[in-house]
Amino acid sequence: MKDKLLNVSLSPHVYGRFSVHQMMVDVVIALLPALAMSVYIFGLHALRVTLIAIVSAVLFEYIIQKFMLKVKPSISDGSAIVTGLLLAYNLPSNLPWWIIVVGSLVSIGLGKMSFGGLGNNPFNPALVGRVFLVISFPVEMTTWPKPLLTDRWQLADASTHATPLAIVKEGLFAGEAYPDLIAQIPSYLDLFLGRMGGCIGEISALALLLGCLYLLYRKVITWHAPVSMLGSMFIFSGLLWLTNPAKFADPLFHVLAGGAFLGAIYMTTDLVTSPMTHQGMLIFGTGIGIITILIRVFGAYPEGVSFAILIMNAFVPLINRMCKPKRFGE
Amino acid sequence: MTLLYTILSLSISGIVAAVILYLIAQQFKIDEDPRIDEVENELPLANCGACGYPGCRNFAEAIVKANSLEEFYCPVGGNECMAAVSRVMKLEHAKKDPMIAVVRCNGTLSNCKKTSHYDGAKTCTIETLTYSGDSDCSFGCIGLGECVDSCPFDAMYMDPKTGLPVIIEEKCTSCGNCVKACPRNIIEIRKKGPKSRRVWVSCVNKEKGGVARKSCLVACIGCGKCVNVCPFDAITLENNLAYIDFEKCKLCRKCVPVCPTKAIHECHFPPRKKPENKIDHNAKVTT
Amino acid sequence: MRDSTINSKTFTIGGVHPDDHKLSADQPIKDMPLPETVYLHTGQHIGAPAKPVVEKGQTVKVGDLIAQSSGFISASIHSSVSGRVEKIDQVADVTGHKRQTIIIRVEGDEWNSQIDRSDKLKGSIDLKAKEIIERINNAGITGLGGAAFPSYVKLMVPDGKKAEFLTINAAECEPYLTADHRLMLEKGKELIIGIEILLKALNIDHALVGIENNKVDAIETLQSFIGKNKRIQIIPLKTLYPQGGERQLVKALVDREIPPPPKGLPIDVGCVVFNIGTVYAVYEAVQKNKPLVERIITVTGKTIKNPSNFKVRIGTPISKLIEAAGGMPKNTGKVISGGPMMGKALNSIDIPVTKGMSGLLLLPDSESTRKPVLNCIRCGKCVTKCPLGLEPYLIMALTEHGYFERAHAEKILNCCECGCCTYICPANRPLLDYIRLGKTTVNKILREKEKK
After folding, report:
1. CATH code: domain of residue C39
2. Given CB atoms, is C256 within the 8 Å cutoff of chain A?
3. Would you call A8 an interface residue with chain B, using a CB distance cutoff of 8 Å?
4. Of residues B116, B120, B125, nearest to C347 (C-beta)
5. What is the longest distance spanned by two Cα atoms in chain A?
6. ipTM beyond cut 0.85
7. Which chains lie within 8 Å of chain B at 3 or more CB pairs, if any?
8. Which of B90, B176, C387, C429 has the fewest CB atoms within 10 Å, measured from its CB?
9. Res B2: pLDDT
10. What domains are defined for chain B?
11. What CA–CA distances, in Å, run from C172 to C115, C190, C220, C242, C346?
12. What number is the average pLDDT over the span A204-215?
């Protein structure tokens, strides 16, 4: 017995079930229904984009850590897979492969590794990649394939199609009244189920909600940021809509169309780039909701979720400093 | 016409801003003694804090403010640096012998066996906080290298073979940051000595002889032989631990061969003749 | 009380729920056989170490005073065996540091004649409040929950403060430990009398006993002995760590928040907190005149052969306890004194049992090492789980980089070292290690400032 050394460390001596790896796996699992929905809507192209994004993200992380930073690669924690997956979800399914690879490089290299790897990045890496692509390749990034309701399994080029948000934005800009535009966009049920044009992951609110329930059950995320973001979007766009129903889109449309659900469930809850306290998360989500509507209604882009999240990411250190938890006994 | 208007209005607002800036700068101008800059230029500018001030600038300010060099000494720059400062200040400066940091522990992995495995956060202070340490010696070096991290001059490294820190003599400036960093006060700033020759007790174990010896093969067991043999009363024995006062030590080296556990170290001396050794050894046995 | 699992109280901020692993809950308390030698540290409690009053070679009986308390916060030590004082030497304690220790070689088992050793229940409390406190002080009783704070000090309510509630901590929120649970099942009547003694000493009428609802049998047992006594109330608590922390316990039982340390004490909100194990020691001291010479210890672990609850003489080497529980399994990687959340890992099994040791936990190799530390992913789990509303991730970062002033401003000294943050951290960061370092450093800085 004497020759074996006992381990000594400070308490505690038992640890909980959470690990970074497990949490990343949970996020990937939660994202799968949305991928399935996307393949159903857009065909195998969606799968192609997703695979290219994931593989290139993992590869870039490995290369940068191994050869540039000269540290032990940490791809096994799975965060690169999540980044790749989320990036793919923010891309149209007919994007050329090389643009996806550039997006992955920007996400991993600029968004994550340049700050010191997982945990040190102030901005959501997947969104950094997406915004870079939106600004660099505006045409490719805003050309969405038509939802394939027939010929689902072909890989040939499909015809292009605008997203509901773009239709409404352009219509309102051209001076058409909102009630007239409703006829041109899919019904709210279609929006909820995902039968619309758009990026791979953002189309089906239903599939994203399924994933959300799983993450809530696994206690990886909390409800605060998503609910406050969707809530503030709903309230703020609702107020605008009430002032002039002809000029502004109704709140339900804003919440269901575009990337609101994807952003709310998977981007505002990104562990690294969201505030620490529940109170902070509420402020964070509210800010994102308001900025999203501001961009959608008054800005140049039809979609504003990714910009809004990045802007609020920059405020996270301030929010953390401001929102201290309630100290016991004070 | 619009062009002219634009140029004019921009130029005027620029001038107004410049005037405001100038006024503000005048308002908040601080009159500084130019000697502060001069003194600072003579300092090593390592901002190590060895002088007792947060940085070289603060040290220079303190010197100028006190207008005296009596209490001030930059151990990093040494006498040369202080001479330069004294030329600037036109004051006499204190002269000190060059010093160096000395690690007073020889509890290498083979001398001092590990008795448990420390698994907590890898810093010396936290291990000290946790328990008596992963060997039986609760005084000796822990070996997690907080001193190395604290050295602003890259003058230390951990020897993976011994598990002890090593001080690179050419680089050590005796700033004393490692002394502060070590939670067990193992490192001491001692006189560098002529030709870097010095003698020291390489142990800080205050346990009784038998206990100390059991935990480490080269521990000072407090036998007092070195005290008896020292012709200059430079060695004191307190709490079962011998200590050589470097101010009194004349580097005769008589204590080194006497030590039964080889806890007294010497460095940079020429190799000694063998017979001397023997006589010394016998002499100790009789005392 | 029947639906105790539904109507359970708890504290409001943070907390975690580690797996129970109460392996020894069904094991009755067994007497440990006498060891050959006992090692009694003179400093087993918080405060000044006791001064030895015996000499080498002297014979002592069980219960004889061998070291006198020195100072207000201190506790006397009594011999836990009969025999001859072998020597007074330096022996390692739970931290591995050597402390003054009285070593007694056991010869027979002769007790001090003033101690009533019969099992007979003694219900009537004859002593006056002052005499009770005196008796508790003389018996060397300290808190048996872990911190070992001298008990009589808590009964001396300082001027200007008023005690309203006696809150008894029977939560036993640490996983694995079952000593208090067994004590409640087997010595319920004695415990009720013990609580009455403390009520009398404090001159108050309300005692609240908080028991976690994973010990329904203990709740029912104690309730049946209380009957219609309105002075004592059993309150089921939710199974949530750290329910037994004094701040959390007082919050759950009387819904008051003790102000933050170092100045805030339970008495500031009118509460006096005692551990249930201490209550039993109080009963024995007051009714049976028996000083604190033995205590109940859970020896447990997934790999150990017979997880058990032992009544042990203080000073017994813990290697004897492990032997009695079936020996040390080959794959043991860590031995912990106390529970897994707040216990101290030992570097040797040769150290003796002290008054504050509530359990002995053996962890196998697979559970005894920490996982590699990753970057903080800022998930905020440590913030939401901290029962004191602190931000462990921030305090750790501040301490790591030496910003102790800011750490102090972030209330580092409020930390109760419960370990919820390190427990929950998905990146395996040693949060509490650094917070402890920060606490000691900040305390040091404050002391130096005070001197100036």
Report:
1. 2.40.50
2. no
3. yes
4. B116
5. 86
6. yes
7. A, C
8. B90
9. 84
10. 34-89 (1.10.15.40), 99-190 (3.30.70.20), 193-287 (3.30.70.20)
11. 30, 19, 16, 9, 21
12. 92
